[in-house]
Structure to design on (742 residues):
């Protein structure tokens, strides 16, 4: 058999070394390319929202420049006239919109805090917002959990959907604080 | 082993590695609702 | 030469003046303020000669860059968003001035003056960058330059008629600038450079919206620059963090290209693989896995797949590289052609190795580019030869020809390193269904079957196996070749010693076989 690095034994030696040193792996065995933050099954082109070679996720909608007619660009004229943001005056729709589009931004936490104050709770595992259906009768209620019918906010259909939940209090996020 | 030229390049690359580009470097400054990167909880929606 | 007395102060005054105008937002968007400012420039004699304009831009660039260094080196603002946005403030104003000057220079319909001015400014910024990079070394900051290039590009790609007429020139100017600033020339700028050439708007313009793929060759050159820079670092089995970061970023960019522009990778695979180190298997597989979007790949795992019945295997893939021109020296090329034509003199075969070997030092014995070119050139000649006889490549039609003489000679005559590189050059042709894939797949199997020593079979297996055990993607041609090798009893694959030389290897073969079956 070939005794140097160009035969099967050479490959074997490399594989054995790679087991102990992950640094050796990335070239010979490569890595799982599906975890680089690119949706390789997307029917759409990736490049319009490509976040760059260092980003773990695509650009958010608000990051991507779209060229709108110049007459649309009026922010410099009205910016100082806009009233400051008052989250407690916005409807839940707007709050959910902010929460789901301001990923990794202060706004996301601010929206979460406002939703919390409106009796919504964020389920950390299910990753959904849940609130009690008014007048709902508990099927079960203990010190650590409760069961009953709740509204959860369904991002896909963008509306509240009723559903029965078994709610572990430990899985609900406490009041978000900035 | 790396040739001398490549060693020099590596040192420069290594220094640059500690000053990686920031996402905002390639985005227009937005005066209205500017981006405020924040370490949101990992269980929040990330994409 | 020394700047004329007073020019530095004038420039400083003017650029500060412009930044103030830019800050009062009406200024930013109003052409009136711009024309007032141009008038001021005139008054200060800046626009009098081309040389003064050049100096003005160079000094302006340096002033803005120095401002950024002052902010970035201020411990309190280092890495804070506040510090960066202060930099953006200055840089964006400078960019806006350049963009407006480019747009309004000369007659509106005359692109020449605009392009000349743009080239001048890009050249100046690149010059300042390289000087800065070589002076500051480890203290060099990429951000100011990246911001200038990015924002200017976005400005010049706004959907305006005057800019649309300029666009191809803008892209060409940018590619030239990025080539000058390639990582091999400015290693400390390599991360910003990769982000610049993979910016979504840049990719969109270069590869999608510019008609007739006119910018594809330019973009291909930039990727070759990147691969050439990475090569010496990737040749090291152990990647340092800075290299891993750049490599991972490169994989992301290639994934976007594989998903959105597979034809681009198909067209340029040869030039890319020519500069990617042999041990960089996954990245090379990624490039070789690209196939035209109009093509539906037959499932390679279907039992009894009749590859030679596929219509696609009669078509040759597009090769943009002029392979024949890369075979050197000219005398060697001449001898090669005469041997292919007349299958003589036999001495050509015995001298083949000496033409390929460039040193005796292990690891760098062979001219890999020449090896790659020779393999593909002989292969394409063989396919043409077979077609001329109204045949298509098969195990019988590829045998007993001058082409196969050459391949068999290389197989027998080269040492293990040479043979490894030779088989790699062949394996680089195993891609989507086309005449090259089919020919080289047959050739691999033929060489395996005809091998007079097990070492040859082992090395064929090694080259194929290492490409299969790496994470996906795997090229279609690689899969069907290996499946045929391990399934077809004529090759007696499982009877070879190297299949059973160690439990891990045995397990590896079995797992690959399982996934193939």
């Amino acid at each position: 058999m070939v005794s140097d690095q160009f035969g099967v034994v050479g490959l074997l030696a490399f594989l054995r070394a790679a087991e102990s040193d992950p640094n050796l792996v990335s070239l010979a065995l490569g890595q799982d390319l599906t975890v680089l933050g690119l949706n390789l099954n997307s029917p759409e082109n990736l490049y319009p929202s490509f976040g760059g070679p260092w980003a773990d996720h695509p650009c958010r909608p608000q990051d991507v420049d779209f060229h709108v007619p110049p007459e649309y660009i009026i922010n410099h004229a009205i910016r100082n006239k806009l009233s400051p943001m008052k989250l407690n005056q916005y409807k839940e729709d707007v709050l959910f919109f902010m929460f789901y589009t301001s990923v990794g931004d202060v706004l996301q936490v601010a929206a979460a805090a406002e939703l919390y104050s409106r009796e919504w709770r964020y389920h950390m595992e299910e990753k959904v917002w849940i609130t009690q259906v008014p007048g709902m009768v508990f099927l079960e209620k203990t010190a650590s959990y409760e069961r009953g019918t709740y509204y959860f906010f369904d991002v896909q259909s963008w509306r509240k959907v009723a559903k029965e939940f078994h709610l572990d209090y430990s899985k609900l996020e406490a009041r978000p604080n900035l | 082993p790396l040739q001398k030229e490549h060693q020099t390049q590596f040192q420069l690359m290594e220094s640059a590695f500690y000053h990686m580009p920031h996402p905002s470097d390639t985005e227009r400054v937005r005066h209205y609702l500017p981006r405020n990167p924040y370490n949101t909880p990992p269980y929040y929606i990330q994409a | 030469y020394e700047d004329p007395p007073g020019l530095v102060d004038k420039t400083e005054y003017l650029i500060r003046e412009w930044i103030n105008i830019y800050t009062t937002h009406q200024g930013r968007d109003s052409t009136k303020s711009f024309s007032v400012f141009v008038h001021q420039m005139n008054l200060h004699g800046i626009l009098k000669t081309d040389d003064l304009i050049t100096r003005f831009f160079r000094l302006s660039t340096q002033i803005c860059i120095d401002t950024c260094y002052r902010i970035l080196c201020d411990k309190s603002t280092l890495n804070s968003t506040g510090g960066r946005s202060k930099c953006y403030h200055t840089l964006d104003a400078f960019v806006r001035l350049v963009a407006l000057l480019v747009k309004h220079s000369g007659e509106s319909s005359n692109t020449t003056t605009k392009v000349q001015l743009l080239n001048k400014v890009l050249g100046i910024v690149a010059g300042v960058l390289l000087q800065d990079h070589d002076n500051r070394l480890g203290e060099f900051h990429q951000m100011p330059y990246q911001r200038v290039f990015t924002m200017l590009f976005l400005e010049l790609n706004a959907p305006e008629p005057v800019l649309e007429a300029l666009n191809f020139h803008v892209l060409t100017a940018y590619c030239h600038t990025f080539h000058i600033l390639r990582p091999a020339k400015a290693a400390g700028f390599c991360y910003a450079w990769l982000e610049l050439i993979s910016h979504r708007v840049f990719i969109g313009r270069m590869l999608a919206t510019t008609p007739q793929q006119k910018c594809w060759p330019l973009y291909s050159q930039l990727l070759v620059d990147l691969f050439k820079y990475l090569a010496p670092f990737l040749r090291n089995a152990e990647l340092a963090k800075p290299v891993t970061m750049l490599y991972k970023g490169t994989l992301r960019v290639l994934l976007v290209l594989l998903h959105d522009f597979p034809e681009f990778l198909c067209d340029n695979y040869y030039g890319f693989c020519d500069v990617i180190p042999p041990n960089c298997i996954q990245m090379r597989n990624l490039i070789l896995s690209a196939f035209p979007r109009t093509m539906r790949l037959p499932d390679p795992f279907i039992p009894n797949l009749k590859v030679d019945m596929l219509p696609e295997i009669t078509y040759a893939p597009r090769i943009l590289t002029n392979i024949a021109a890369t075979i050197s020296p000219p005398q060697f090329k001449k001898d090669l052609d005469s041997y292919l034509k007349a299958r003589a003199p036999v001495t050509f075969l015995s001298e083949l190795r000496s033409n390929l070997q460039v040193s005796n030092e292990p690891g760098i014995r062979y001219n890999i580019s020449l090896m790659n070119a020779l393999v593909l050139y002989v292969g394409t000649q063989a396919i043409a030869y077979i077609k001329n006889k109204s045949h298509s490549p098969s195990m019988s039609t590829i045998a007993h020809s001058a082409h196969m003489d050459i391949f068999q000679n290389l197989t027998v005559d080269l040492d293990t390193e040479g043979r490894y590189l030779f088989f790699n050059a062949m394996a680089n042709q195993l891609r989507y269904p086309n005449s090259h894939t089919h020919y080289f797949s047959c050739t691999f199997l033929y060489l395996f079957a005809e091998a007079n020593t097990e070492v040859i079979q082992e090395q064929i297996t090694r080259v194929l196996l290492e490409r299969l055990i790496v994470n996906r993607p795997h090229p279609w041609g690689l899969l069907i070749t290996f499946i045929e090798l391990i399934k077809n009893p004529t090759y007696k694959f499982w009877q070879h010693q190297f299949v059973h030389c160690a439990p891990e290897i045995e397990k590896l073969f079995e797992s690959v076989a399982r996934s193939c079956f």
In short: Chain C has a mean pLDDT of 92. The two ends of chain C are 73 Å apart (CA to CA). The CA atoms of residues 168 and 367 of chain C lie 37 Å apart. The first helix of chain C runs from residue 7 to 23.
